[in-house]
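Please, is this right?
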Amino acid sequence: MLEGEEVSAGSSKPVKARIDSLGRSYGTGSRKNAVAKVWLKVGSGVVTVNGMECAAYFGREALCKRVFNPFHVASSVGCYDVRAVVFGGGKSGQAGAVAHGISKALKDINPSLQPVLRQAGLLTRDSRVVERKKYGQHKARKKCQFSKR
């Protein structure tokens, strides 16, 4: 797919694939307090997060599966190289942010994948964040022990 090549995304008007001069597609993902900047390009399937391999950075297999989920949904495992820079939050939020960024970049590289990714819920930002602690309570919802007398 070349820069500016038109692809139909299921609608009547053609959508242009957004790819830069280096053949990369860019996507920004976020989850909780984590923000990820993701660059995607056609390659052998190497995923680097903050300069480290995915498994080495996240450490847990479940988090790596979460990062690779957009590729499984799009049936394109091993087709793209990913370079991600992620900051803020914890490892779980960062994995979700990278997956969100990969989904957005996949949509830009191949607009025909948008309905599939949308159906899987990968293009929607998960807006759930930690509820704040209230004063006069132990935690966000845990109250102090009630004494009747």
Notes: The mean pLDDT is 90. Helices lie at 54-58, 61-73, 91-109, 114-119. The domain at 20-118 is CATH 3.30.230.10 (Ribosomal Protein S5; domain 2).
